[in-house]
Design goal:
It is built from 5 helices and no strands. By secondary structure, it is mainly alpha-helical. The two termini are 18 Å apart. It has a single domain (4-72, 79-158), classed as Ferritin, core subunit, four-helix bundle (Ferritin), CATH 1.20.1260. The protein is elongated, with a radius of gyration of 17 Å. The chain binds hydroxy diiron-OXO moiety (OFO).
């Protein structure tokens, strides 16, 4: 049975993942609004990934005999001035989430919760990929600068991203 402290910390992280879903959905809406549909597709995949991250924690809590408590989700930002600004915000958000996951692991260690420590390992590795993905698009956007044709080529590339449901175990 999971401890109350660990259960509370996981509920907070479910909320953070659902906020991530909401934030990326807002970014998707922004890209649809400015007609960068490949970027919007990239965000759509990200939205689905964040839901999967939240549900992984949800399922872990249930399997361990804990109680899922869904908390209020904050309103995300709705306006950015460029694709670069969006991805800088995404990277900053992922770095924040990485810090949260690390703190969650610390709670699991303090609670001597071996099952949660092992389970959270997937999230630790996922955060490396999340930061890498956002940062590599930032680097591309910096190279592109004000070149609209190059931006449209990148938009085409990002249209190819597809969602593959992660196996969180
Ligand atoms: Fe973007 O990794 Fe979850 O929040």
């Amino acid at each position: 049975m999971i401890s109350q402290k660990m259960g509370n910390a996981i509920n907070d992280q479910i909320n953070a993942e659902l906020f991530s879903e909401y934030l990326y959905l807002s970014m998707q809406a922004y890209f649809q609004r400015i007609n960068l549909l490949g970027f919007a597709n990239w965000m759509d995949v990200q939205v689905k990934e964040e839901r999967a991250h939240g549900m992984g924690l949800f399922n872990h809590l249930i399997e361990r005999g804990g109680k899922v408590e869904l908390l209020a989700i904050d309103k995300p930002k709705t306006d950015w001035s460029s694709a670069l600004e969006v991805f800088e915000a995404a990277l900053e958000h992922e770095q924040f989430v990485t810090g949260r996951i690390n703190s969650l692991v610390t709670v699991a260690e303090e609670e001597k919760d071996r099952a949660s420590i092992s389970f959270l390992d997937w999230y630790v590795k996922e955060q490396v990929e999340e930061e890498f993905n956002a940062n590599s698009i930032i680097q591309s956007l910096k190279l592109i600068g004000p070149d609209a044709n190059a931006l449209l080529l990148l938009d085409k590339d990002l249209a190819a991203r597809t969602f593959v449901a992660p196996v969180i175990a």
